Amino acid sequence: MHDFSCTEAKDMYYGILASRVEFFKESEEIVNISGLSLEEVKQLKADRSA
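^ that's the sequence the OP posted. Answer follows.
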């Protein structure tokens, strides 16, 4: 229960949960993508696979 009240991954005890929280909350790329519209994300994905 402790990990679910943490706001930062470094404060968590369970390693797997902490790594996923770090990826989604603290990863620069994910933070940038979360501000984009769905169409922009689709275009970004298409550009990367081309």
